[in-house]
Predict the structure of FMN dependent NADH:quinone oxidoreductase.
Amino acid sequence: MKILHLISSPRGAVSFSIKLGNAIVEKLVTANPNSTITTHDLTSSPFPHLEEVHLNSFYTPLENFTPELTEAVKHSNEAIAELMDADVIVIGVPLYNFGIHSTLKAWIDHIARAGQTFSYSGNGPEGLVKGKKVYLAISSGGVYSEGPMKSYDFTEPYLRAVLGFLGMVDMKAFRVEGVNMPDLKDQALEKAIESIVL
Ligand SMILES: Cc1cc2nc3c(=O)[nH]c(=O)nc-3n(C[C@H](O)[C@H](O)[C@H](O)COP(=O)(O)O)c2cc1C
């Protein structure tokens, strides 16, 4: 099994989403001992925000490519090749201002490409990234899985929508919740790790 592990917290060893992501990866490896793991820290090696040159590289036919466009499309081509090659994608998701970290959004902007990861046919859009399993390791200061803040969570619903649009519909989310809440923070990680079911 080929595992792609994406990290999007800049907090390294103290990050809860990284710890939870690592716990998911460990369980996957225990269940599939011959697995290979590719880990990308999107915060230390970020994908560039989409600029005009990237968009031109996405939409220019190959025969009209310049050296500049060839360079610009590399990030996207490499990320898509790696994604297509993976069987399982584990994504660490720190909740920032009700949404995902901007480095994870930048990665998504480079993998969502018409003709490569989705297409439009007579039947509407079709996701081309098929047969993957996706695990989200979400970490948040408050509680969003239930209760009054549920509708403020734009991490899981957004990732289900955009990755689902690309074909990644087999997704499970696990959460370290309430890491800033005195009554919940001490048990939050342990509870999240216990909740992991592959
Ligand atoms: C810039 C920033 C924005 C945050 N926004 C929210 C928020 O909107 N809601 C919330 O519950 N927690 C918020 N938090 C708390 C984080 O979700 C929490 O610290 C989480 O554990 C971060 O993930 P990490 O431990 O993997 O770095 C924020 C933290 C930071 C640094």
Observations:
- Strands lie at 2-7, 36-41, 88-94, 118-121, 124-127, 133-139, 171-176.
- Helices lie at 16-31, 52-59, 67-72, 74-85, 102-111, 156-165, 185-194.
- The mean pLDDT is 97.
